[in-house]
Amino acid sequence: MWISPEDVLLAGALWITERANPYFILQKRKGHGDGGGGLAGLLVGTLDVVLDSSARMAPYRILYQTPESLVYSIIAHGTSRKEITEHWEWLEHNMLQTLSIFENENDITTFVKGKVQGIIAEYNKNHDVKEDDDTDKFKEASAKFRKLFGMPEEEKLVNYYSCSYWKGKVPRQGWLYLSINHLCFYSYLLGKEAKLVVRWADITQLEKSATLLLPDAIKVSTRNKEHVFSVFLNINETFKLAEQLANIAMRQLLDNKGFEEDRSLPKLKKKSPKKVSALKRDLDARAKSERYRALFRLPKDEKLDGHTDCTLWTPFNKMHILGQMFVSTNYICFTSKEETLCSLIIPLREVAIVEKADSSNVLPSPLSISTKNRMTFLFANLKDRDFLVQRISDFLQQTTSKIYLERELTSSLNSSDDEVYSQHGSVLSSSPQHSVGSEGERTFNLNDSSVPTATQALMTMYRHRTPEEFNPKLAKEFLKEQAWKTHFTEYGQGVCMYRTEKTKELVLQGIPESMRGELWLLFSGAINEMATHPGYYEDLVEKSMGKYNLATEEIERDLHRSLPEHPAFQNEMGIAALRRVLTAYAFRNPNIGYCQAMNIVTSVLLLYSKEEEAFWLLVALCERMLPDYYNTRVVGALVDQGVFEELAREYVPQLYDCMQDLGVISTISLSWFLTIFLSVMPFESAVVVVDCFFYDGIKVIFQLALSVLDANIHQLLSCKDDGEAMTVLGRYLDSVSNKDSTLPPIPHLHSLLTDNGEPHPEVDIFKLARSSYEKFGSIRADVIEQMRFKQRLRVIQTIEDTTKRNVVRTIVTETAFSVDELEELYVLFKAEHLTSCYWGGSSNPTERHDPSLPYLEQYRIDVEQFKDLFSLLFPWANGAHSESLAVRFFRLLDQNGDALINFREFINGFGVLCHGDLTEKLKMFYKVHVLPGECSGPEEPDSAFEATQYFFEDITPETSLSKNPPAFIGTNIQTGNKLNAPEYRHYLKLWNQDTKSTQENTKDLPKLNQSQFIELCKTLYSMFSEDVAEQELYHATATVASLLLEMGEVGKLFSSCSREERSQEHKPEDGNSDPTASPDAQDLGDFSNPPHLEQGDEESEQLPPMQDIKLEDSSPKDTPASSAMLISDDETKDDTSMSSYSVLSAGSHELDEKLQCEDIADDTVLVRSNGERSGRGRGGQLPHGTSVDKDWAITFEQFLASVLTEHALVRYFERSVDVAARITNAKNVRKVGRPLLSTSDYEISLSG
Q1: What is the pTM of this model?
Q2: Residues forming a β-bridge with 351
Q3: Of 71, 344, 534, 764, which is most buried, counting CB atoms within 10 Å of its CB?
Q4: Considering only CA atoms, which of 62, 109, 95 is closest in space to residue 81?
């Protein structure tokens, strides 16, 4: 590639000059290519790898030099001789003559450099290269990475690091390449190369380790090996990036979404390190945005734009607090350096004015932000205030235009609706209010007009308090409300409230019943999503109305199990609201749909918040606060179970071993975490846990769980089994009470199911929550995320292994493959699916992978992926027709016609070829050719599907498992001579008796027409290439083909005679027997009702006479029935110089103009009956539009019988297949999904 000219002082050092002229020099790096350059070459190669020059130094380069100067400039380099030669030839043809015109050397230099810069600019313009794309150095590293590991262009390198790889006890210094889908290592030391390729999706553990020998090392574990890397210049950066890429791979395994590069990144700053790639910056930006969203509970599509140090004036304590300001597309946020001191979220939709205030000594560079509800925030000590103000103004402008657009859309929708809603109420609440009209107050309801919809929290509908009820509990509740109101006055109310230690203190004292819904919405961040999606919930309810699927069935089943003890869910109103919220969410997020425990959580949300608010709280819970908890495999809960085990080991070590032995942690954590303690604690106490959870996140759940274990440590240590331990914990949790609750006592279902032992003394929920903060409050959210990553690797890989075992267990009884072989084949099948996710395929990966499907259906491959596996595994994949045979095979296996095949279908097809008997293999071979082949033009999409209907019953375990071959096979192999006619008939009778059920199926097989027969012959010839018995097989194929041509001709005579008799009854014939004259010639691809099926039983009646034809001699003869056939050329039988046996494949004067024998073999000859030769390029072939003989056809029985006459073919199809060797070969070739480009003897290590 051409590069911007760079000066080189020593042109000869470490380089060999290969070509030169007065202005340019082409050089090759020492130690590269043939010869190696001796010891100097070995040293140079080693230095190139150890130093960063392994990426920077391409093996070839072109230098520019003016005749009298000692300074050279490199203007091009290349990774291959071909590439650099093209550049060199271009220079010689286009530049040399032009340069001879110049007189001044400076002019020459200026011209050359300008010309090269122009070529680069033209290339960038044509290839749409962005200005801020990767640097030249990084592009060189990417090219080297792809060349070394055989990666395609689609595989993007993220970064590369110098390190040592420990191979046994020997460190190999080299380079670690981290790409989107792979971790690769390359080392070259004194002539010895080492390569390692590991798929991120195969990694089971990734951790930093420290030992005396290796203080800083990264350990990468797969299912069968451990790899250790050390001596990093920046181990933290390397580890974080590896962690992030492994996380992306796990996410891909979980929901099958491929990685998509973010193209909206800001341009690279001049000060940025040159080595950083666009992808690395993209991933860094993602990581920062994720932390930012988690810290401030923002919507999951919010992207951080930047952050800066500053101070914030806090009016409640009259101080300037030091912290950081974060600016993103829709929010300005602040958090203090001291974590719990103060945090602030200002949505730009609430901002009215942003202005620069006057600077002073006390307030340097101040910035004032005023909101619509008259709150003003004063930031100071901003480094680049002008830029910041401009950035915020730009975002503010975008936000304003969005709000206007939404208002216009909403007003147009409302005006066209039959119901008009008044716009009063909270600005943030987009729930429709009471309608205005003559009908009085109507409540918005989309499902059933007879059932009122919850436009207010269900709790308020079931709490009609009278003044007489006033008691000390209510007085305490009233004081709590007053405390919160005072807090709002001092710290602000709504989204822009200052969140301080005082806020947390109030939450721990308990949120008042009347404010619970509002504050849950605020602390969870759900208020932001609801405010930015007005009308979304109503639309979702309307769309999901009346729709039924698996999720809705499960929802209906669980509706009456959701807080059945609460009066709000003992009538249709509460049940209907719960149904709407759960169904709407199932339609919003089909990946989750519905999971048990969602009903319990949602019913509590509905008690304290309006229906739409409950929906958005559920969204926040499922998608942000408890990620992956409620998918089909509750992965998130299993991950946090692992995190809880780690925390228990650290914080309650004396209890950990006992709990592990009893297996209690795995039992308790799922029920505690999935329902946020709602299912295991009395309701009025559990809602206090939910209060703390919405304020402080998942750490609250871990803290509380550890507190419960810690409080019961002595009883648990004395437990003898898990049942006793569960009883201890169950009693404790039942005793947790909320003395401040004003709710009527609700019987707790869990307590009703426990035994009649002594009840545990009451435990106050507020004391329990406070003690959890005091003892375990040091648990940090970022530490939890780190632990979650480690556990996620383990959990997802365990799930993948379980899936593999279940698939193998399901299918092992249906096939002759061993369990180990099936497991290896499954890994290859899944790897092919993943490869298409990485590098694209002909179909959408999401359509091919659905975790909710049965195990066998979870991974499916399309035709392009099947072609790759076919070429690697299937014994018939030889020669030029391998690809078309793979397409035919795929269509046959694709039983439901969805252009995808699952693992069972794949194994059924492969099993026949590996373990089927001769008849099954030949039947399979026959069937793939009766199906329409691959068409160059468009075809009817259902044609292949209709065709496969013939074959459903044949690809079954019964037919593919026949271990005892028919009797004729043994005899046929023992006899070296061709079978004579009596023997053939004898074994055919035996076959008929032994396989009656198969015979019933074979009679249903369509006949093979002339075009399909030609394709079958082509495939046969192609399959034998490079076979040890190639010549013998070609002889045998010629004989079988000639025999089948005879049979087809005889059958044609019978059918034409019977048709003539019929036609004479209807109309006179003109004597023209040439079928090509028929205007209604059938299309070859359409065989749903082919003309040769019209004869019905007449064909089968012709079979007995066919057996009387002499079969001993299959040499050509001039008979009236067949004037030409496929024959062997006796003159060339012993000519070893022939690459394959010459075959005659033409017909009589009738067939000659119709039979299109293209490429049956490379040296195929077309011969007329009179010996005159014709062929491709000699005028013997008619145009493609010519029709074939529609009367010519053969049956499967005829095909089978013909093959049985040839010992070589029987032996070929009977040959056993070494499945293990094929699998090993496939694994070696498919190390990274594509064959390695390099053929040198590398020391390659593969994991996965």
Answers
A1: 0.72
A2: 371
A3: 344
A4: 62
